[in-house]
Structure formats: structure tokens, C-alpha cells
Write a structure and sequence with these properties.
The structure is a homooctamer of 252-residue chains. Chain A is globular and about 80 Å long. The relative contact order of chain A is 0.11. In chain A, helix 1 (2-10) packs antiparallel against helix 2 (16-28) and helix 6 (127-139) packs parallel to helix 10. Chain A is 43% helix and 15% strand. With 252 residues, chain A is an alpha/beta fold. Chain A folds into two domains: 8-103, no CATH class; 117-250, Rossmann fold, CATH 3.40.50. Chains A and B meet through helix 7, strand 9 and helix 10 of A and helix 3, helix 7, strand 9 and helix 10 of B. Chains A, B, C, D, E, F, G, H: It comes from Bacillus salipaludis. Chains A, B, C, D, E, F, G, H: This is Nickel pincer cofactor biosynthesis protein LarB. Chains A, B, C, D, E, F, G, H: GO terms for molecular function: hydrolase activity. Chains A, B, C, D, E, F, G, H: InterPro entries: P2CMN_synthase_LarB, PurE_dom.
């Protein structure tokens, strides 16, 4: 494009000032290369962190996004706020356990890709975070399988499900208390595992610090960690990995 | 196999006690399903953590592994210990910066897969951890590209390289001091990013705690974190992800 | 049992497919050896952690357990929730200080065993945790003696009771504030002592951290520690030890 | 004895002042009841914490104890110091891994009691603490079985040994890094389990804090915790419990 | 008393069994020497920590103490609870800022002793703790002078009052935020100074930890520290020191 | 002045007692030199920290200050309290986001000085602190430019504004979460930068500790840090620096 | 410049490909606007952090910089390493207390500007950090005045110097132990104050954490803080502020 | 004195300039009132903190002080440095355990005062700190009694000495590990008690933090705390209190 402009200047088709203006735009696009990979994110919803925003604030953000016909994912949104949105947008889906409200433009056609994300946790107390991960991953377009009662203290329940977990493309393992579950699962699988400490526990748990340290210090290989209670972040990561597998599958 | 044994009992080909013995083995293999996915790890080297082991201990572990013709990777091994091993195993490769000694049985043939792992760090002080990640990833069979002078404080150097980093399958971003680099890179790429805090710094750095917290709290999506200075762990993770891409590429 | 099945196949009493089905169960029981020691826990109630569960949730869990005629222990359950359960299960016992609701199928006949668990604490502020331990131990079938006003600051009250404490099979010592009581008791007894830090205190107490560290650092021998406020865990431990003594007493 | 003195006063065999003197002694023994349970500790060695003491200091303490023909256990003593003691006391036994030097007066005759303490750890790096526990327990008179390669990351090795661990009277589980092993073992056994965090690890391990918190927060029942690296303390506890079982066995 | 009993035995006035019973009491008093210095505390009120107790509980404790005609000091008691007590005990005095309710039997006659406790703080935000100290000290019988607006940031106000502070027998210096005031005052006085960190502040104040550490690390000599917000403890200490001065003054 | 007084004494114009009185004042002014630089602060408002004060308390402090015709700045004051003040002082200005209420006596005439303070933050969640800084700086007499949507994760928005930020006299950069923004801005500007960590975040953010440590450890030069959420303190600092520039501009 | 190139193309002085090449450079300079404010830093030396670099590494970095005739400042460099450099560069200046080696191209001519940076600390133990700040500021071109024995515990020494400190343009206050000095100085000056905590102290000092928290929580206005022991960072900041004053002075 | 000067001016005995000079001194003494209470410290030695100073530095400080015939106390001074000083000052006394070197001008005549400071600790590991306290107190002129083997774990040894401890004017209680001793002693005495945590311990002791927190949280009244290992500070405090008692005794 630069060459073209210069030739037009050379041949008099463009005056110097016209060329300057065009090149100014061009130069302003200098930074654009920073952003052009973002296109890959197309199909990903705009994400709104609902905590600390009023229902009106959330609503007006949603309106702005919807005008661009973009998918939407609102995390940490209470039932009361969600109901407010749902009155005007009944096509939205709300999951109360996950505290997530979302809307997806198009359910894609049948895919050949068979992979899925395994979401593993020990019990009902970690459910909110596990579901935040599960719903996020689904909203971002991945298949999810839930393994929700497979804690360390009753390890045989984990073994009953281990083959299905092993066949996942990537696992998200959510654990509070002592946070040992990712270490155990990590020793049994050969795919990437994203560990999510939760703030569930009491006493010397220190709001999830105990589980966080456990996971960072895991002696099993293939484990990386996200912030305490950050089910969304874990799912985002897992979907990026799952998409790599998908891309391969599509080629195949 | 169970059916076969039973039929042989039925037809008298096996006595009850012979069948019992065979099934005992079978039953002992009951746990085997736990381990059978490990086959996927074939080709991966046995990993020895060299710190705190004498050169003689390392040597005897190596001998045991070599008898099985298995690849080997020794991390956190000093030059002095490595020299000792190299005298008997001159075919091994030692990287002093990474403090890694390794041996790979077979350099695989040309692959069609063009993907690579980007390893990003700010400067010379984080080099040891970055190289631990790089050499580990290479020893585990992945292509690596190094971006080693792209810190936050001189951000234009990062932009000079950003396109190459964006085209990687997965990034490892190593940072000490305030640990802000993964957040910046994370905002510019659309692939999974593994952040490695290092213990480089002083004062209120608290041996890497500062960088670790920064990374866990990153507001960029797609970032997961491994333990302080754990270049090996980051690489292991990245290779698992890279292998997912490879598998797709092979299919294609 | 395996031999039996094989002989039945040999003699034609079982077809191959029938045998396979039976052995399938057998093989599924492969993991059962992992669990078979659990039988020792018979008589132990199912434990439900009441905090964070609604009264309806607790009720439906109780119904499921009662159908198996199993003993039940609900910890951290408020009076209001307990009243809800008691309306349908008036045979249950609720202890408000301990915040425990439980039911025991059979009060065992007179035992020859004379041992007991001593539960020691300094004052009214640690009572909730001490009673959680006491009621738990009683619900699990142990004899308990309470020593509830024997703090470090008025040590003569401890000495008035020391002989009875010394004759216990195992002691649980509950302490908040500076948590020094286990060290003092630990120097005076020759049986195992389980220390429970409580979150009682203010200022630099840091929600029980102060007491926890004190107990972990105790220079008296024979002390082990459970989590802050974990009266239940201490009692569970103590009962396991008490049961060892009981088993011996029964033999004698 | 009091009655005797009074009768002698009554019958004139003792003058008032003579009786007073005798009773003074008696009264001084008032505190003795505090200490009389210590007799139960007979047979237990005197314990010397070797760290920070010179070999000459250790030697002179040993001489003082030996004059009372008492068993001796020196913990945290280096080979160089131990050699110094062994030159004069060749009958002592030194274990270098455990850093323990000890002497036992009499190896007791055959006992009917078959119980033992299981000492479980994941690998070579936790060996020093595990051996401190093992040697201490043996020196205190208990039978010990070692399970030293049964970590969480390769959980099948734990299962190969689980039955023997389950049959122990009490377990000591030693773990560094993320410290998850006690939670897993705790879910599989029905006897008391003493967890020992070790300072083995790096990065966000914080000298064992990570493992300590994991163990305190364990969701498995029956676990209590001792200080970081405190193999001695765990063994002391375990032996107290084992002695309860022994006492029962002797009665039987 | 012992002699008396023995003489009665000698002379037949007491039977052996009667004497035994009396001496048993005597022996029980064996520990009494532990407690006999407590007499020095006469005149000191019984102290009740009001936080976490209901008004009814406080009331019944007060009734028990009043029956012994003992002085009373209730700390951390809200106005609402105090009003409840005052309805039945209108002779009590309540100080709302200090959250203290107390009653003193007798206002002692004129003393020759002129000493006083200086209570120093920076501003209105530390007032509650300063007043807790002041009222406590007064209730315990000491003279108090308040210096309540002499912070570090406006140091000239401190200097306007420094001579009066210097002439105190002992100072209590209360400070939140950065807690620097005790260091400054400590450099200007030659009497003992008790520093009280308060939880006043925000951000990296960590509920008083900042001020606590500042005071412990003070480079001025003659400073000792009590727990965060512990105005009562500081006053108790200061009164003990003031009483030493008083005793001397009385002698003089 | 001293000489004058002495001459008047010498010449009898002043009696000794009159001179003494005058010198007393003089001596009292001994400390005055400590305070005389305060004159430079003229024009600066009196600052009232509103949190924890009742509206009545704030009102009476304001009345006292207004009697001296002094500018006023109340920080951390809720809308409800501000409304109460505004009813009597309708000339006051209240900013709800910043939670600041203030009054400035005189809007100074046109200045030649063109400098300004850049206030930079990433998003809506840090707005309260950023506005506290902005309104404070304006109330203290500085020009302010706001850059409120320029976070690290979307770094191109920062670049769109970087020239204006670079031309500021001094920058205040407000950031929560991982707190990386000051490092990035610090690498792009050549003027002093004051970093303000906020308590915005969750999980391992620890109420702003994460951001605080990040900023203290920044590898960019020219950055200093104030307390968590301390927008006021940052602005006060920035205005002091801006005033240095102003003074120079006025001279010029 | 763009216009010039385009005119040359228009007039045929440049071919399209020549213009393209020139503009390529121009476009590459697209990011240059990011960096163009750096020119303001001219005269500032290149800074090398000496710790952890060998003398050879430092030497070769110096050689590279000297080829550009640039000023140089090496911090945290030991005497032994400095001597090595000095042998080849005898024109360099080394300050052992500050551990700084530097070289300045040109000592600028007499300036009209009279301002200076006050560097304040309490005693000999903080000297290394204070001198790192002082030498850095001097090497960066500012006038420095040292006030090195003015601690909080002996506050009269501070007052003897307070007027000179007050007349500085900016102060750097260095303090270890409890770190209270900045609060006191901050209450007495009306210019910006940069506080540097040092790691000097013991016990609950926690390597400077105590002083750091004190300074962050200071109730005096106008204080900002740099990292523990970061004398260089404080000086860099102070010089940026001093340069603002200089610029004004030059204009005047 | 001011009046006197003025009268001399009035009467012509002093010229104005002479008076000015005298008053200048007087005015310079303006701050002196700040310092005049220091006279009370006469007899107290100058204290030099030896750690981190060379023997030559210590020597030259000593020479400067000796020229004023002042008592001297050097703390934290190694034997090797002390020997160097002792060669020139053989009249000095060195205590190696306490690491203190001191010199006292005059041993005062017989005093009527019988009071003493009790220094209490548990064992040999806390000896260095206890002796630092003891020698300091003696060097500052107080009588000291040592109770050095009275730990919490063997509490009967404490009771054997409790009466003597109770009769002290003030106690210093030194404890490492769990730091429970001050709580126990504090419950048995009625005089002020200064608690000194030591850094003795391991594991979760965190260099004395555990003992420090225990002491701050003590539920016994009359306890205040100094920094970890700060035997000197405790002694300085105790001597100030002891001097109050002495002053009274002298009057009497």
C-alpha cells in the first residue's frame, strides 16, 4: 500500500498533502499490528465482571455490546441482578450456581471434534467455582464433562472416573481445604491440568492461601495454577488449549 | 483375555489353580488401568532433580535408566557434577546456564508441524530460569524461540518482537522483580500463556513472592502460573500443549 | 470365592458368560481392598458438615443415611436448622454450645473398659470448640471428662485436676489467645495429647494463628495439633486412640 | 505414710518437732503428685537435642545420664560429633541419615504384641525426617515398617503397599513439597495418622509452610500434625499410641 | 497450724483420722504458696472482659462478685449492655469512649504520693484505646494525666507538653497508623514507657500490624509493647509500676 | 529583635519584668522555627479525614476552620454526610465518586503556567481512588488530566494517550489487581511518577498487597509509592512537585 | 520530514524505492514517539546494576557504553570489582560506602540554581543506603547535603539541622529499625519527601518490612516510598524533582 | 537566670552584646528542656551496639567516651573484638555468653535497697539472650537473680523457685520455641513482667515470630513485650522500674 501511495505521488495522482494524510492513517496503524491477532478471538464473548456493578450498569454495557451482535458472558452476577437483565433479554441463559449470565449468537453445527474439558472437584462446597469454570467453558464453545464428587479423602470415587478424565483434552481441577486433588489427578493424566484453589475451608486455610500454596508446590508435572476462586480464568485457559486441539481436528 | 481363560477352564485346558494364578496377575493389573495412559508419555525422558543429590547418586540413577534405553533429563545440576557424568557419557549435552544435562535417543525426522513455544523474559537476571524452560522444552521435543530482552520498562523492544510471539502455539513468560511482563504479553496474544515468577529482586520482593502474586492477580485472560523459578514445570506444561497442536498437525 | 467360581465353570455349573459377570464384580472389587478396612469404622456415624448447607439440604442427606439405619453426626449446625430437623426426628439430640446434632442407633451395653478422654480448656470463650470435641467424642462412643476452667494464668486450678487428667487415655487441650495450655499439660501427662488452637483472641492473635504456632512449637513431647477451631477433628483422632485402648481392654 | 507419722505422734514415738520435720518433707512432696505419672515414662530414654551443642557439651551430658544407667537418644547430631562420642562409647549406635545417636540398656525379650508403626514418605528427599522418626520410634521400643517411595504423583506405588499400612497401629506420614500424601493415606486407613511436614521444596514452599498448611487443612479425618521437620516429635507421639495398644496386648 | 494439729494429736484432742482430714486440707494448701502473693493484688478489681458476653451473663458475674464486696471493672462493654447493668447498679460509673463500666468500693484518703501515669496519643482516632487505658488506670487507683493531641506529624504540640510527660512515673503511648509516637516520646523521657499499637489505619496497616512492628523495633530505650488495642493491658502494667513508686513514697 | 529588647532594658524603656515577658514569648517562639516553613503551605486547605467521624463532628470542625476563612478539604465522606454539610454550606462542592467535599476561597487569576498532573488508571474499578487523587489535586490548586481506561491488558489504549501523559509535570498511576500499570508507564515517561496500589481484586490479591509489592519492586526508574487506596496522599505529593514547577514558571 | 520525502518523490529527487526505504525507517520509528521523550534523559548516565554480574561482564558493558561517550553509573559494585575496572579506567570515581562506580563526561559550568537534595538518616548503620542515594544524585547532576546523625530517639539533633533540611527542594529520608524518621521530618517540611526503608534491624524487623510498613502508613503528608534499601531509586526520583526546580530556575 | 541577665543589663553590669551572647546560649538551650531530664540517666553507661562495627570503630568510639569518664556498655560484641579492646583496656569486663563488654566507673557504696530483678528462662538455648539481659542490668546498676532451668514442660522446677521470683521487683522472662513461659510466670507474680521472645526454635517458629505472638497474646495481666532476642531492651526497661523502687527505698 505504501508503494502505491508513493507511485501516485510520483505520477501526480496524489498531492503531497493528500499523501501525507493517507500515510498518517497508515502510520497510526503502526500500532495496529499489536492488535491484529485479536481477530482470533472472534466468537469469544465480551466478558463483564459483574461484582461491584449495579444492574443498571451491567444492562447498559450489555446494550452497547448487543448492538455489535457480539456474544456476552457476565460473571459473578447475582440472581437478583440477572433477573433484571432477563426481563429485557429473555433469550439469555442464567446459571445460579455459577453466577453466570450469558448469550451465544449461534450454536455451531455438528463438529467432528470429540474432545472435552474435564472439570473435577471434591464436593458440594467447591461447586460454585467448578460451575463458574464449566459454564464459562461451555459459553466459550467447548464441550465439558463434570466429575464432582471425587475428593482425595475418598480416592476410590476418583478411580471410578479416572479413565474418562484421562481421555479429556485438558482438565480443570478445583479444590479448597488442603488442595491436594490436583496433585493426585496430575499423577494420573498426561494432558495439561489447570488447578483452581478455592477459598473454601476454615482455620489455617487463610481464605484459600493453603490450597494455592499446595497447588504451586505440586510435585506432579503438567500442572499450572490460577488465582483463588478464579473458575473463569481456568476455563478461559482450558478453552484456549481445547481450541488448539479443535483446530487440529478440523484439519484432519 | 478373561473370557479366554474361563473358556480354557471350561474346556479343561487350564486347571483351577493355573487359572487362579493367571487371574491373580489379571487382578493385580486391576490398578493398571490407572497407569495405562502413561504410554502417552513415551518418548518423554525420565527427569532427575539434581539439587541435593551427589554426583555418584545421579550417576547410578542414570545407569539404571540407560539400561532401559530411555531418554534422560537432569535439572538443577552444577557444572562440576555434570562434568563427572560427561566423562562417562560424552554423548550427553550439558547447558550450564540452564543447569541441565540431558540425552535424547533419537532426533526425530523432519516434521510437518511448524509450531513453536515462545520463551519471553526481560533480561539477563532471569536467564537461568528461562533457559531451564527452553532446554527442557527442547529436550522434551518441542521447537523453542527465545525473546530475551523484552522487559516492561523498555516496552518498545517487546513490540519489535510481538508478531513472532503472537504466532507461537504457547508462550512461557519469565519475570522477576515486579513480574508485570506476563500481564502485558497476555494482553497481546491469543494463545495459552504460562507465567513463571523468579526469585530475582531485592527488598520487598520476598524471594519471588511479589512476582508470584502479580501473576496470579493478572487481569489479562489466558494466563496460568507455576511455582517460583520453576522453569522446568512451565516447559513441561507448554510441551503438553504443544503436543496437542502437533497431534492435530500430523493428522492434517 | 475366585476358586469357587472357577470350579463351577470347570464343573459346568456356571457358563462362561455367567462367570464373567461374577468376576466382573470381583474385578470391580479390585479397588475394594482399598476400602475394606473401612469396616472398622462401623458404628461410626456419617458426619455432615452443616455450615453452608440449608436445612433442607441437611434434611435430605439425613433421610438418605437413615434409610441405611446408620448413626448420624451433624457439626456446625445452628439451633434454627437443628429445630427444623428435630421436628421430624425428635429422637435426635441437639447440643447448642457444640452446635452438634446427632443420633446413635444403640447405646452399647456396659463395657469393662474404664478409660476416658480428658477435654481441657481455660474458660468460657473456648467452650464452643471444647464442646464440639466433647459431644463428637461421645457421639463416636467414647467416655469424656471435661476440665473447663484450668487456664495457664491461674495454674493452681489446673493442679487441682491434674491427677484426673493424667489418668485419661488421651487428652484434648483447647486454647485460644496465646495457646500455652497444651505445653503446660503436655509436661504433666504421659499419654498422647491433641492440641486445638481456637480463633478466640484479638489484636496480634490473627484469628488463631498465634495459638496455632505456639502449639506447633511446643517444647513438650507427645503433642500433635489439628486445625484452628477443629474440635471435631481432635475428637475423631482421640476416639481412634481411645478405641485402641478399648480393644486391648476387651481382649483382657 | 501420713497415718503412720500421726500414729507415732499419738503413741509418743515421735515428738511434735520430729513429726513436723517429717511432714515438712511430706509437704514438699506436695508437688510430687504432679510428677508421679512420669514413672510411666520409665524405659524411655533421656533425649538430647544435639543441634547447637558442641561435642564436648553433648559428651558431658551423656556422662551424667549414663551414671544413672539411663537409655539415651541424641537427635540432630552430625557424624563428626557422633564419631567423637562413639570413640568413648563404642556400644552406641549412630544412624547418619537420621542424624541420631542412641543407646538402649536392654533389648526386651520377645513380645506377644504384633503391632507396628508405619512410616510413609514419598521419596529420597524426605528421608532424613522419615528416618529421624523411624530411628526414634525404634529407640523408644516400637516396631517400625518403612514405606519410602509412595508419593502422591505416582499413586499406584502407594496402593501396592496400602494393606500393610492399613494394618499398622498408627502411621507417620512425612511429606514435603505440597504435603498432600497424609490426606490420601488418611482417606485409606482407620487408625490415627500423624503428619510431618518437611522443609523440602523450593519457591513458594516457604520452608515447609506450604506442606504444614496442607496437612492442617486436610479433609481426611484422623490426622494430627507436628512441627515442620519434627520427625522426633511424630515418633514420640506414635510410640505413646503404640504403647496403649501394647498394654492391651499384654493384658490379653 | 501444723504444730497445733500435731500437739492435739499428741494430747489426744484429735484422733489420727481427724488429724489426717485436717492435714489433707493443709496439704491441699500445699499449692497455696503459689497463690499467696495474690494478696498484694487486694484492692484491684475483678476484671470482666465484656466482649462476646450477653448483658445477662455480665450481670450474673457482677452479682457473684458484689457478694464479696469486691471492686469491679468491665472492659469492652457497649452502652446498651452498660445501661442494663446501671439500672440495677446506679452506683456504677460508665465511660462510653473507653467502653468501661466500673465500681470502686472506697475512694482512698489523701495520699502523699504525687506521681501519675501520662497517657499520650495523637488524635481522636486512637481515643477509644487511650481512654480504655486511662479509665482502667484510674479504676485501679492511679492518677492519670491525658495528652491527647500530640502526634508525630505536628511535633511542636508534643513539645508544648513534654515537661509534664517527663515528670510522670510511667507513660502509656497509644498510636495507630505508622506507630512512630512511642519512639519519639521514648527519646525524650527517662521513665518506663508502655507502647500500645492500635488497629486504626488503612491499606498496608494490616489492622495494627504496622504499628506493632514499629514499636517492637523502636531504637529508643525503655519501651515495651502490649497487644494491638490492648489499652487495658498497658494500664495494668503501668499501675503495677506506679504502685512501686507509691510504696516508696509511703515509706518516705 | 533580641538586641532591640536588650537595648530598651539598658536604656530603661523596658522594665526587667516587661522584658522578661517579651523574651518569654521570644523563647516560646524557640520552637517556632520548627514551624515557620509552614507558611509555604498557605493556600492549602485544612484536610479532614471523614471516615469514622459523625456528620456533626465534621460540621463542627468545619465551622472552626471557616471562622479563620481557611480552605477546606474533607476526604472519605459519604454522600449522606456531605448532604448534611451542604445544607448549611451550599457553596461547598461534593464529588461522590471521590467521596470528597471541599471549598476553595479564591479561584486564582489566570496563570502563565501550563503544567498539569496526569492521573492514569485502568478502569472503572479503580475510579474511586483515581478521583480521590484528582479532586484532591484540583482542590489543592493543580491542573489535572484524567486517563482512565488505559490498562496493561489492552496496552494500545495507553499508547493512544502516551504523548499527553509524557508532557505532564508529574503522573499519578492508580492500579489494583496485579498493579503492573506504573511499571509500564514508568518506562515511557521521564518525570516523577507516584504509584497508588488499590485494594481492588480478589483471591491472592490480599486487599491490595499484591499491587503494593508489584509497585515497590518495579524495575522502572522514577517511581515512588504511597499506601494502598491513598489517592489523597498521592495527590498531595504530586501537587508539591507541581508547585515546584509553578514557582519556576512564575519566575520565568 | 515526511513532507520533505514526499516532495522529493513528487519532484523526482527520490525514486519510489528510495522513498520506501526511507519511510520504512520512518515507519519503524512509528513506535519512536513512545521513546522520544527519552531525549530528556540526555546527560543521565546509563545505569548498570552490579550485583550478580562478574567484573568481566561489567567491563564489557562499560566498553560498549563508552564507545557512545555516555555517562556511566554502576551501583552495588564491590571494591574488588571496582578496582578491576579502575585499572583500565582510572578516570572513574569509586565510592566504597555507596558501592558505586561512575564517570561523568562533563562537569557543567556554574549554575544559577541554588537548590539541593537533603539526605537525612539516623546513624552509621543506614550509611550505605544513604550514600548510595547521595552519590547517585550527585552523579545524576544534583547538589546534595547530608544530615547523617539525626535519628528519632535523639530528636534535638534533628532540630539543630531542621532549617537547612526545610530549605531543600526535596528530601530523601533513610531509616531502618522502626522507620519513624520520615514521619517526623515529613511533619516539619513542606517539600516532597522520599522515604527509603532499610533492612537494618533485627528480630521482628523482618529485613526492612517493619520500616517499610511504617513509612507507607505515615500520617504526615507529602511522603512517598521506594523499595527496601533502594537508595538508587530514591535518588533517581529526587533528581527528577530537582530538575523541575532547575528548569524553572534557568528560565528565571 | 534570665531575670539575672536582664538586671545586669539594666544595671550596666553587662553590655548588650555580652547579654546577647549569654542569651544566645540560653536560647540555644531552648531545646534543652527537651533534654534536661536526661540528667536522670547519669550513671547510665553509653551503649554501643557492636554488631556490624569493626573492632577499630568500636575502639575509637570507646576512646571518645572514656575521655568524658563515662561508663560504657558494648552489646553484641564477639570475643575476638572484645579481646582487641581488652588489650588496651584491661579494666573492662567481658562476658562471652552475653556477648557484652563493659566498664563501670564506680561501684557504689552499700545500699539499703534489697530489691532485685528476676531473670527467668527455660534452658541453655535461651542463655545468650538471658545473659545479655542479666549483664546489662548489672552494668546498669541493678541486682539480678538468675532462674535458668524453669521451663513450661517441666513446671515443677518453676515452682521450686517461684517464691524467690515472686519477691523480685520486676521479672524478665526469656523464652523461645512456643514462648509460653511468661504466661505461666505472669499468672504467679504481682509485679511487672517483661517478656523477651528468642529466635530459638525450628520449623514453624519463624525466627521467633511464634514466641513473639504468644507473648503479645498472653492472657495473664502485667506482661509487656520487647523485640525478639532483645535482652538489652528488656534489661533497660527493668532497670528503669527497679530504679523507681530504689528511689522509694532511699527516701524510706
Amino acid at each position: 500500500m505504501l508503494e502505491e501511495i508513493l507511485q501516485q505521488v510520483q505520477t501526480g495522482k496524489l498531492s503531497v498533502s493528500e499523501a501525507k494524510e493517507k500515510l498518517a492513517t497508515y502510520e497510526d496503524l503502526g500500532f495496529a499490528k499489536v492488535d491484529h491477532h485479536r481477530k482470533n478471538r472472534q466468537g469469544f464473548p465480551e466478558v463483564i465482571y459483574g461484582e461491584g456493578k449495579t444492574k443498571e450498569q451491567i444492562h447498559s454495557i450489555i446494550k452497547a455490546i448487543r448492538s455489535k451482535d457480539q456474544n456476552i458472558l457476565v460473571t459473578r452476577i447475582s440472581k437478583e441482578k440477572a433477573d433484571y437483565i432477563l426481563r429485557e433479554h429473555p433469550e439469555f441463559i442464567y446459571n445460579e450456581t455459577a453466577q453466570i449470565l450469558y448469550w451465544k449468537k449461534n450454536i455451531n453445527g455438528k463438529e467432528s471434534y470429540q474432545g472435552y474439558i474435564a472439570i473435577v472437584c471434591a464436593g458440594t462446597s467447591d461447586l460454585r467455582v467448578a460451575e463458574e469454570a464449566a459454564i464459562t467453558a461451555e459459553a466459550l464453545g467447548s464441550e465439558v464433562r463434570r466429575f464432582y464428587d471425587v475428593g482425595v479423602a475418598g480416592i476410590h470415587r476418583l478411580f471410578d472416573n479416572i479413565e474418562q478424565i484421562q481421555q479429556a483434552t485438558v482438565s480443570i481441577v478445583v479444590a479448597g481445604m488442603e488442595g491436594a486433588l490436583p496433585s493426585v489427578v496430575g499423577g494420573l493424566v498426561t494432558h495439561p491440568l489447570i488447578a483452581v484453589p478455592t477459598s473454601v475451608g476454615y482455620g489455617a486455610n487463610f481464605n484459600g492461601l493453603s490450597a494455592l500454596l499446595t497447588m504451586l508446590n505440586s510435585c506432579a508435572s503438567g500442572i499450572s495454577v490460577v488465582n483463588i476462586d478464579n473458575g473463569f480464568g481456568a476455563a478461559y485457559n482450558a478453552v484456549l488449549i481445547d481450541n488448539i486441539a479443535k483446530k487440529g481436528a478440523k484439519k484432519g
